[in-house]
Fold these 2 entries.
Entry 1:
Amino acid sequence: MKIQVDSTKCQGYGLCEQIASALFVLDEFGYAATPGDGTVPPEQIEAAERAIAECPATAVRRVA
Amino acid sequence: MITETAAVRIRPLTGAPTRLLLPKEQYWEDLADYLPRGGYARTPDAEQIRELVRVANLRGRGGAGFPTAVKLASVAEAAGPRCVVANGEEGEPASIKDRYLLRRRPHLVLDGLLLAARAVNADHAYVYVSDDASAASMRVAIAQRRPSIPVRIVTVPAGYVAGEASAVVRAIDGGPAKPTAKPPHPYQQGVGGMPTLIQNVETLAHLALLVSHGAAAHLEHGTTECTGTFLLTLSRPGGPAILAEVPYGARLGDVVTEHLGPIEVSGVLMGGFAGGIFGPEALDLPLTHEDVRNAGGMLGCGAVILLGPEDCQVSAAADIAAYFDRENAGQCGACIKGTDAMARDLAALASGTAGPDDVARLERLSANLLRRGSCGLLDAACATAASLVRTNRPLVDAHLAAPCRRCADASSPPGETRFRINW
């Protein structure tokens, strides 16, 4: 599974980082990005799916 | 800023028959001028065109230098229908090569576009531009040639991001000329959801020459990795600007001396606004994508700006950062905030009012914001700031200690970059 933050949509709510802190890095303005290529380790899949569902801007998406 | 037409000089490759640039006397290449040069003459099939591109190792001329054969294969192998786009939206302010080709040699571009369409079995094509003169020129060429597939001209307002591939797709589909998140890439899902081949107009010009003159003629110039020639836009802020056809691998200093004589160079902006700011040692660089990248910059679309003894690298950086602050698409938070912050900090540095916190922020942002935008603009802004604070720290520190006379004397036209070539 690979996820990505669509930076054209991210509004800096930061919910993704609260839900799955290992999968997201916020910049100093509060906008999110996935480190590396967005690969999700098996034990993080559930958290990743919650982050996708919870983002108010629908900015987190699955790309693979 | 360069505004007089006379301040732009066109320099074809010496000792060669007409390649990319017309002989100086000729202003617009008519169909009757283009045909005797071998234009539209051969009709290779899709596989033959792709093989020719592979053998010639043609790489894109839009900035990324991506292998054209790989792009052609990706689109050709995807399920149809497919379309092709000639990308002539020259977003880089210090580049004029795409405009030149569209306005003076529209048949060369059209020939390449139709060959690209055949290479990927596309059934319609677009020409994407941001100035009326280019659109008008292409319209006449299309009317003269009457291609067998529909070719539609799409004109958008000019902008730095308007020529980015996903922005091209979005604009042709009726939206704003602003990037979208990838995947999907245009070659997978582009215009109208179709696999779309997007090629810079200079790349298409090279394709037309490959078909009319063969791979050997192309391979006579350049290096193994970067074959052939490219169009270099070489300029100084007060003029002149030179548009020259140059073999890849030529040493920048040699090209400068050939076209501008023994001028004093205090700095070099490689790859227009995207490659960062170098010192005069950049004159020793061979002009290839690999050599410039290994030196920490980028050759990009072949726009090189030379700074003279009266130009300070700090005010140059401030000018570029202000441009990115104005020109960004206004979509990605990191870019909106990041370009604003970097523009403020560099302006403060140039005006002698910056403190250590501002420099620390420039250093931090130029490293931490990389790849956080949906297109290359944020990375270009980071490269500008990084090249100053990381590779020229003594100059930066000197600006903290005291205001700089050269920076004070430098002036950008209000709301505009002084590096723009208006042509």
Entry 2:
Amino acid sequence: MAKSLDVKNFRKQITKELDKKMRVKLNAITRSAAKEVMNGLAEAGPVWSGEFRDSWKATLLGSNAIGATGGYPYSLKNIPKIPLTVKQLKRTYQIQIFNTAPHALIAMDKEPGNFVYPGFEPLKPIHARGIRNVTGLRGDIEAGTGNNRSTAPLDWYENYKKGGQFKRRVNKGVALARILGKG
Amino acid sequence: MNYQKIRAQVENPLLTAFGALSPAVPVFFDNITAAPLNSTTEYVRVNVTFGLTNDPTLTSSIDNARGAIVIRCFSKKGEGPARNQTLITTAVDVLETLNDSTKGTTGTYFKVGSIDGPSFSSNEDAPLFMGTIETSYVATVLS
């Protein structure tokens, strides 16, 4: 009888230990993928002063935990650690990525904006130069004699999400976590 | 890769559908001069973007691509959303019809994903009311 109890306890302990290791691995993979996605967004999007590029943040769903403040290139420090609880593990969505720049929606071509030359040249090479179309959207620039400029194509964000680059970044993050194993 | 064939799959039916409306609504695509600045007449702006090309995970064919389609409908400001929603419905109907095609041995096989939106926006600087829908697509050029 005592022997069977020992076996039961042993099995329980092993399961608990394996479970914890799996959760640690999941933590590492999720955070690594989030970091890669943020770096991908920063690289695909427009960069004039760098404010928008450096304003991507990751927050843990179910808590207020936000990763350390910092700009591009993002590292694992910028992604909050995921608690190793079963409750957290059961969440379908673990991390939310968002941009805190006040003009984020304009930068993502979701809203028209008012564009004023800030007095300095952009950090990223010019993608298009000409006349900004009637839509008033950041990236909607028609080649011509005008001096409106943009540093990322129109609808870069939709293309990033739906064109396969997002998935590619997630895959890269998962692969990196497997190699480096940091979590 | 034949990008023009892929683009034509979505642009031609949209042009036909908006042309059949009464009154017909002009549609502007990439690199085509859009409505003049401060235009107050309605129009549609279609942007087809290409993401990954020759993605081997889609099919065994290498002539395939995926990307996003963003359709923005502009209508008169301050007159309610009805007209804008009529334009959006026209665009949604076209996108849904694209999914009815079956894969043959020639031509271009084109499928769109779920449609995000419509989302509506209007600000004091913009002369028109804007409705937007977005979707993903995968396309394979078979011949």
